[in-house]
Design brief:
442 residues, alpha/beta, 14 helices
Length: 442
């Protein structure tokens, strides 16, 4: 049996695929190692969503390839979105890669490794649609107290700038029974926080049941004991129903937190993006959420520099940010992705202008985040502890209900005797642009 290391890049949805590969590898008797210089097999699960992600993936492949010269590595395997999109280019330009696996074939990882040791270089890149609705072992890359649960793969929205449907296929939901079984296993393993993910969770079940079944799924999941927090990520505003909002408002364990990817506020840009609804539709949804759930935390993602974006249209976006006052906001410069409708549009924006607009958006959001965080000083919050910042004095790092893992801020808790994975009550004493400071309430 071999020692195998894996580097997972990109989003949480890609990370779930990495965890399944590790589960299959471990089930076959191989040893998972964290130190790349010890590994006989190195796997890079790549991202190919935008240009920056592609560049990171390529650099990571080249870096790990060095272990074939200076470490114990005998095989280098590339999987994920970059493989699905550029398998022939990888084969031609990177001879150091021993096998290439697409997004619909990653469950063949063990067979590919065995064949590669036998001298057979395989390229397994076929239909990107993957069947998650079956037994798939997982070795979580997250801390023991938190996990991601992918309820569907692929997407039917076909936004003009997005390559995901080509990389991941059409929407393919898992059954409610299959998802519930996985969450029950996570609960038995001690997981306290489950982050529900898909390209668009509000469309969950349409392909299986003929209509969205997100509410039915959540009602089943909240019957499972021991999971304290259910967090909903990637919910399209135009698909958000009153039924979903009411369930969040009434069920304590479904966190008052929503990630609503808006992408832009100008109506013409939204139309060209193929995003449903207008700026006013989005604002009405935000107002409805805050009226029904006053303490809800809203996160969004935005794209600046979309083809043809004028200064006036960009100002519409800035005005929208001021009015919406999102608690959390991430922005991206538009990436011209071959094979997308937007890549062929005229009036592509120069990179320096995209970057300048990105910086203006983030500067504005920094002020908004600071003001919204200031409102939490003196309040009590529930905190999930995740790491030790220092032992003398004791400072622990955790997340509140308002903070999704990896993308949001943290809270620094002073003087607690609690342990990693514990949930404690904390009084907020200081607030900054993205992070909080507090003390444990005895």
């Amino acid at each position: 049996m071999s020692k195998i290391g894996l580097l997972s890049l990109g989003c949480a949805k890609n990370q779930v695929d990495s965890e399944i590969m590790l589960g299959l590898i471990r089930e076959d008797g191989h040893e998972i190692v964290k130190k790349y210089d010890e590994a006989e097999v190195l796997i890079v699960n790549t991202c190919g969503f935008i240009s920056d992600a592609k560049e990171e993936s390529i650099n990571s492949i080249l870096e790990l390839a060095e272990y074939k010269k200076d470490g114990n590595c005998k095989l280098l395997i590339v999987t994920g979105c970059l493989s699905q999109r550029y398998s022939e280019e990888l084969k031609k330009e990177m001879p150091e890669v021993d096998a290439i696996i697409g997004t619909g074939n990653f469950d063949e990882i063990v067979e590919v490794i065995n064949d590669a040791f036998g001298g057979k270089k395989r390229i397994e890149v076929t239909n990107p649609e993957f069947d998650y609705d079956r037994y798939l072992p997982r070795t979580n890359l997250t801390p023991d107290h938190t996990a991601y649960v992918k309820i569907a793969e692929g997407c039917n929205n076909c936004c003009s700038y997005c390559i995901i449907p080509q990389l991941r296929g059409a929407l393919k939901s898992r059954s409610i029974e299959n998802i519930k079984k996985e969450v029950e296993q996570l609960a038995q393993a001690g997981v306290k926080e489950v982050n529900i993910i898909a390209q668009d969770i509000t469309q969950y079940g349409i392909d299986l049941y003929g209509k969205s079944k997100l509410v039915d799924l959540l009602k089943e999941l909240i019957t499972i004991d021991n999971i304290k927090w259910f967090r909903l990520l990637y919910a399209y505003p135009s698909h958000l129903t009153d039924e979903i909002i009411d369930l969040i408002a009434t069920e304590e364990r479904i966190l008052n937190y929503l990630d609503l990817p808006v992408q832009h506020a100008d109506d013409e840009i939204r139309k060209q993006m193929n995003r449903g609804g207008t700026k006013e539709d989005v604002l009405r949804t935000i107002k409805k959420l805050r009226k029904r759930i006053p303490d809800i935390t809203l996160r969004t993602s935005l794209i600046v520099g979309f083809p043809g974006e004028s200064e006036e249209q960009f100002k519409t976006l800035l005005d929208f940010i001021k009015e919406a006052e999102f608690d959390r906001l991430g922005a991206f410069t538009y990436s011209q992705e071959e094979g997308t409708v937007a890549a062929q549009m005229p009036c592509q924006i120069p990179e320096e202008r995209k970057q300048e607009r990105y910086e203006r958006v983030m500067s504005l959001q920094e002020d908004i985040s600071y003001q919204r965080n200031q409102a939490w000083i003196g309040k009590e919050v529930e905190v999930l502890l995740e790491e030790v910042q220092s032992e003398e004095p004791v400072i622990m790092v955790g997340r509140t209900r308002r903070d999704a893992p990896d993308v949001d801020g943290v809270i620094y808790v002073e003087g607690t005797s609690a342990q990693i994975g514990d949930m404690i009550k904390v009084k907020v004493t200081e607030a900054y642009e993205y992070d909080l400071v507090g003390v444990e309430i005895e």
